[in-house]
């Protein structure tokens, strides 16, 4: 039986992946993705994202644990899963002498139920580049072509490995809109990304990986809950952190100083900001480069990276 609306389209249970030399890149991770959801895997370089996605794509067998895509094992039941999934790898690597349209037609020939090539190219804004040779495309246009090929089979499940790396801001926004439209049409999307605003803006749920494990998972709001807000500013010459009101009284839970720049972390942004600004007003000093930011995914990510450094 295949999945229905209410089942998980992707199920990962205690997945492990060990490479030839014995290195354990994925150390027992569990998560699931429902139909029509966008799920983002985040993590520092080497956290194990690609190693995980490769197993989901059926390109590698798990060393331990269990993976199901559309109810099937993507490695041993590849024939059942592959026609219903679209894969955008980090490096497409197609013959560079072919044109965009020729590449897409070649790919369509290997794809069951492929949509018309012009339609796939239009989805990613490459319709006017159809006659251009792949080697003449910019890095961002190649990423768009990668995405067009992944979309040729109108997949139910789409794997996107760093889909917007190399795209300019407009291209990135176009890709986000496309992913949202696909999601609204019922496509399930699993993406890896280094752009936290991409995960924050696109993902229904996400997991932050660190050293082969999931450090935290949930909706973007759940992941940022409990993380501190940040205030940063530059002190004028002659002033030092010790001149500020006692940080504990401002509700500050941590601080860093780099030259003149001071960064404060607090769970009470209004109290800390008010105390700081009243102090500055009274002392008649201007806090240059003043920035205040509510808890964000970036803070959650950096917090996990810091914890990882401390543990080393
Ligand atoms: N074929 C391999 N043999 C041995 N170790 C590998 C192999 N491929 C990856 N690794 C190691 O496994 C770990 C996880 O790599 P992986 O590519 O999954 O990380 P990632 O989270 O996708 O990183 P990035 O953000 O840099 O793409 C890294 O330490 C990497 O060096």
UniProtKB/TrEMBL annotation:
<dbReference type="InterPro" id="IPR027417">
    <property type="entry name" value="P-loop_NTPase"/>
</dbReference>
<keyword id="KW-0547">Nucleotide-binding</keyword>
<dbReference type="InterPro" id="IPR050763">
    <property type="entry name" value="ABC_transporter_ATP-binding"/>
</dbReference>
<protein>
    <submittedName>
        <fullName>ABC transporter ATP-binding protein</fullName>
    </submittedName>
</protein>
<keyword id="KW-0046">Antibiotic resistance</keyword>
<dbReference type="InterPro" id="IPR003593">
    <property type="entry name" value="AAA+_ATPase"/>
</dbReference>
<dbReference type="InterPro" id="IPR017871">
    <property type="entry name" value="ABC_transporter-like_CS"/>
</dbReference>
<dbReference type="GO" id="GO:0005524">
    <property type="term" value="F:ATP binding"/>
</dbReference>
<keyword id="KW-0813">Transport</keyword>
<feature type="domain" description="ABC transporter">
    <location>
        <begin position="10"/>
        <end position="236"/>
    </location>
</feature>
<dbReference type="InterPro" id="IPR003439">
    <property type="entry name" value="ABC_transporter-like_ATP-bd"/>
</dbReference>
<keyword id="KW-0067">ATP-binding</keyword>
<dbReference type="Pfam" id="PF00005">
    <property type="entry name" value="ABC_tran"/>
</dbReference>
């Amino acid at each position: 039986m295949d999945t229905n609306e209410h089942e998980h389209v992707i199920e990962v249970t205690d997945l492990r992946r060990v490479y030839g030399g014995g290195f354990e890149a994925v150390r027992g991770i569990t998560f699931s993705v429902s139909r029509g959801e966008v799920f983002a895997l985040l993590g520092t370089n080497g956290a194990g994202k690609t190693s995980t996605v490769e197993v989901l794509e059926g390109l590698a067998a798990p060393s331990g644990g269990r993976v199901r895509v559309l109810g099937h094992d993507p490695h041993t039941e590849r024939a059942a899963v592959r026609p219903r999934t679209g894969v955008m790898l980090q490096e497409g690597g197609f013959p560079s002498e072919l044109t965009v349209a020729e590449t897409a037609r070649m790919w369509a020939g290997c794809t069951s139920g492929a949509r018309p090539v012009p339609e796939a190219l239009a989805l990613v804004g490459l319709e006017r580049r159809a006659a251009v040779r792949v080697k003449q495309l910019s890095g961002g246009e190649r990423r768009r072509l990668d995405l067009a090929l992944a979309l040729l089979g109108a997949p139910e499940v789409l794997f996107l490995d760093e889909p917007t790396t190399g795209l300019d801001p407009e291209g990135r926004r176009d890709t986000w809109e496309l992913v949202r439209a696909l999601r609204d049409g019922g496509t399930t999307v699993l993406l890896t990304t280094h752009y936290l605003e991409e995960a924050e803006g696109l993902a229904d749920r996400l997991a932050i990986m660190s050293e082969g494990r999931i450090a935290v998972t949930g909706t973007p709001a759940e992941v940022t809950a409990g993380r501190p807000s940040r205030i940063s500013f530059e002190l004028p010459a002659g002033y030092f952190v010790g001149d500020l009101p006692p940080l504990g009284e401002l509700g500050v839970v941590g601080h860093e100083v780099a030259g003149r720049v001071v960064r404060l972390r607090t769970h009470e942004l209004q109290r800390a900001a008010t105390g700081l600004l009243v102090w500055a007003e009274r002392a008649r000093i201007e806090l240059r480069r003043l920035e205040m930011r509510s808890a964000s995914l970036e803070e959650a990510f950096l917090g996990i990276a810091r914890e990882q450094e401390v543990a080393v």
